[in-house]
Design goal:
Length: about 575
């Protein structure tokens, strides 16, 4: 029986890796393609009324996956992980077709994309919630780290592959960003329905409706409030004093507290809080959350750095910056792909804990190196540092997942996989609120002065310069994020027509705006990267926690009483 079991393990690994890869590519492919998408539907994302469209295009997919993966993982435990996973592939493929066929323009076109992205996230959640559990079922403990390494690193690397792919496709046609999912989705769906089968433990249980509702409502309110806190409100640079934002933060925390009370009282909880009695499970998920926040913040900052500042300063047209930003971030992806499977294999032999913690320390060192780079850096140093960051992320991902998945009983693997994905996806959404807020706070101190002096030096009347300098810095930050020079729009034709032609060319050229914001951006970057360093080091400490919880510290006592189990702990 060994040969058929082993052959099925590779089939399961191949298909679930494809599913995880396409789901995570899709979360970032839109990120770098937003300029092409907004141009394609004829929407100016920098108008005040359109900022919400921009935010929901950024975070809608990630928010839905963060909310749903635990529920869908739990449903996999009850009804079969393969059944839920297969349905996810089908939903993902159908919604990709709908996204590419957007018939509207302007705000209606943006709402079409946001709505179908939310539905697509349901399919992506089904894939992500059950893929690790299917692999854990299919492989013995002694080879589980390697298998999870391939799957998890492919998923995390997918978020960076999406940046490259999005940049390339945005050059051609914005609809191709969604079309690319269709042939892969069709292949994966047919393959999954024909080849995958449930081999894990299924435990009949009732659906925890109150737990599902309170978890979804509380997490949605909390993450949405954090995201809307970025927007200006009532004369303030950010919206943290907005009553709706405060209500979302306080109400979201209160509803999540109610959710925890429900979960410890119901017979079949969707989120088995008892799993957190195991220190390895608790520490692994804490490391997942903190590492995801740090990695998500890096992703956003690097896009702003490249598209809004470095590439225009080095002669690249704004229209070409998405493509080249993706290309210049290739070392980051290479680092992930180089380290991930190797770390999974070696962690099976020598233990997962040190690899997970060591990877986070490498990430922290790379953040420190990026902190020392000037805004107009030399590319070889930048490439080495982002490669090291990817290498550290690859060293961490597979061993961390192996620790989490091997610390739970077999019948709870779907829920555990969903919990891990929830912390990972919630970290990406949190990174939008946390790092954008820190960056805006940094910009608000130095950007007004830089704008005033830079504009008046080019002959802009002082009243107009002061008016522009007084605008909320989030607009400038989004302009840099989109690789866009907003000076023409901010000044308007009346001011520009009154200036000498040489000054107008300078103001609206590719270098004036990047030069203007480079020093204020670096001031904000210092705060952002120091926080990323701290998060990475705390996550490393959490990865070193040893198990002595309710399951006696064994990595897996349910289906593989293997002497190598102790090494994973």
């Amino acid at each position: 029986m060994a040969a058929p079991v082993e052959r099925y393990g590779w089939i399961a690994l191949s298909n679930t890796t494809l599913g995880t890869l396409i789901a995570t590519i899709n979360s970032s492919i839109v990120l770098i393609s937003l300029p092409a998408i907004f141009n394609g539907i004829g929407l100016d994302p920098l108008l005040p009324g359109n900022v919400s469209y921009l935010l929901w295009m950024l975070m809608g997919y990630m928010l839905v996956t963060a909310v749903l993966v635990v529920t869908l993982g739990r449903l996999g435990d009850i009804y079969g992980r393969v059944r839920i996973y297969n349905a996810g592939f089908l939903i993902f493929t159908v919604t990709s077709v709908a996204l590419s066929l957007d018939p509207f323009h302007g705000g209606s076109g943006a709402l079409w994309l946001i709505g179908w992205r939310v539905l697509q996230a349901v399919g992506g959640s089904m894939l992500m919630a059950n893929s690790a559990a299917i692999i854990t079922d299919a492989f013995p403990l002694s080879r589980r780290g390697m298998a999870l390494g391939v799957n998890i690193v492919a998923g995390i690397a997918g978020s960076f592959i999406g940046l490259i792919l999005g940049g390339m496709l945005a050059e051609w046609n914005w609809r191709s960003i969604f079309w690319v999912n269709v042939p892969i989705g069709v292949l994966g769906t047919l393959w999954a329905y024909r080849s995958l089968r449930d081999t894990g433990v299924r435990r009949p249980a009732r659906i925890d409706w109150w737990g599902n509702v309170t978890f979804a409502a509380g997490l949605t309110a909390l993450l949405a409030a954090i995201t809307y806190g970025i927007q200006p409100y009532g004369g303030h640079t950010m919206g943290w004093t907005n009553p709706w934002v405060l209500a979302g933060l306080i109400g979201g925390v209160a509803v999540l507290a109610l959710f925890c009370l429900i979960e410890v009282r119901v017979a079949d909880p969707m989120f088995p809080l008892a799993l957190f009695r195991d220190r390895v499970f608790a520490g692994g998920n804490a490391a997942t959350l903190l590492g995801s926040v740090a990695r998500g913040g890096l992703q956003f900052m690097l896009i702003i750095w490249l598209q809004g500042i470095w590439l225009p300063l080095h002669g690249y047209d704004y229209a070409d910056t998405p493509l080249w930003a993706g290309i210049y971030l290739v070392p980051l992806t290479v680092g992930f792909l180089a380290a991930g499977p190797v770390a999974g294999y070696l962690s099976d032999r020598f233990g997962a804990r040190l690899f997970a913690a060591g990877g986070l320390v490498v990430m922290a060192l790379s953040f420190a190196g990026l902190l020392l780079l000037p805004t107009d850096f030399g590319y070889p140093w930048f490439a080495v540092l982002v490669f090291l960051n990817g290498l550290g992320g690859g060293l961490f991902a597979a061993p961390n997942t192996s620790l989490i998945m091997s610390s739970v009983p077999a019948e709870a693997r779907g829920a555990a996989s969903g919990m891990r994905a929830t912390f990972q996806n919630a970290g990406m959404v949190l990174s939008i609120g946390v790092f954008f807020s820190l960056m805006v706070a940094g910009l608000s101190r130095s950007l007004p002065g830089a704008l005033t002096s830079g504009l008046t030096a080019q002959g802009v009347p002082a009243p107009a310069a002061h008016t522009i300098a007084g605008l909320p810095p989030v607009g400038t930050l989004f302009a840099a994020f989109l690789g866009y020079n907003p000076i023409r729009q901010l000044l308007g034709p009346d001011v520009l027509n009154g200036l000498p032609a040489s000054h107008t060319r300078t103001l609206t050229g590719r270098e004036f705006f990047p030069h203007l914001i480079s020093q204020p951006f670096h001031d904000g970057l210092v705060v952002v990267f120091w926080l990323a360093i701290a998060m990475s080091l705390v996550a490393a400490a959490a990865s070193l926690v040893r198990g002595s919880g309710r399951r006696g510290g064994r990595a897996d006592t349910v289906d593989q009483p293997d002497p190598t189990a102790a090494r994973a702990r």
